[in-house]
Amino acid sequence: MQLVVLGAGAGGGFPQWNCNCRNCAGLRDGSVRARPRTQSSICVRADDAADWALFNTSPDILQQIRQFPPLQPGRAIRDTGIRGIVLMDGQVDHTTGLYMLRERGEKMPLWCTDPVFEDLTRGNPLLRVLEHFCGVDRHPVPLDGAPFTIPGVDGVAFTALALKSAAAPYSPHRNAPVPGDNIGVTITDTATGRCVFYAPGLAEIEPHVWQAMTAADVVLVDGTFWTDDEMISLGLSKKRGSDIGHLAQSGAGGMLEWLDELPTATRKVLIHINNTNPILDEDSRERAELEARGVEVAYDGMEIRL
Ligand code: MLT
Ligand code: MN
Ligand code: ZN
User: Fold this and answer.
1) Cα(10) to centroid(ligand 1), Å
2) According to the model, what pLDDT value does residue 59 have?
3) Is the pLDDT confidence value at 48 over 90?
4) What are the domain boundaries of the chain?
5) CATH class belonging to 2-305
6) Cβ(245) to ligand 1 under 6 A?
7) Mean of the per-residue pLDDT values for the chain?
8) Ligand 1 center from residue 9 Cα (angstroms)
9) Does the beta carbon of 13 sit less than 6 angstroms from any atom of ligand 1?
């Protein structure tokens, strides 16, 4: 199985258009050694397969497709290597790119949970707007542990679980979460049984989430913030990471403590990294700490083979 990180950044990407935090300004003027990152998306296919499952459609999807030619195999006058799209939630950075993919002759094959479908047809009626273009062939994502597959993406199976993060700000349940607002997905190579657990938004590691993490060969999990008050201490927001659905890496009960408890053979990768996070600076103390703990930081173009 081949998994490619199309965008390793959180909402806003890195550098963010209006941001002059140490990382964003430092990336622009060359004083910080770091790679730019587009917004949150991955794609997956079996080794010998032609086509891909896309997870999330970021506002940067067109750039991501240009940067990763296998998504445009060029077999016909209009073509794509994307056979299905799975949404991890209804957040702006995970869904806005659907608009960018509207020039299709056929309906867009889309997998999302009921709460996300509701949000994307009401609070942010993006899927209704798309009905005036290609339209959507929507498939519900089961949350009962039943695996699902995407026709044309052979050799890969998906199992979703509901987890605690946060619905998008426009959602009527932003402050009253319902199961399915956010999901994690175990992506399994059906030929080998090897699997990745992917959860770009993860606020709390509940027992069923931990079970999925310990069962995976690779975990690709929420790397948004180093500290819970990162945005507050920079004067950029009044909200903590935990208020908006992200478990910080450092500190007691933080993501790094959890990752330390995984089997040594598990590959640990952080993704959905906010532009304020010091781990983006490849010379930072925080990045060195990750290296010492055997934790990787995802980047655009990163390929994970299983
Ligand atoms: C999040 O991950 O918390 C959101 O994507 C934030 C945003 O809307 O930019
Ligand atoms: Mn996000
Ligand atoms: Zn910034």
Assistant:
1) 7
2) 98
3) no
4) 2-305
5) alpha beta
6) yes
7) 98
8) 10
9) no
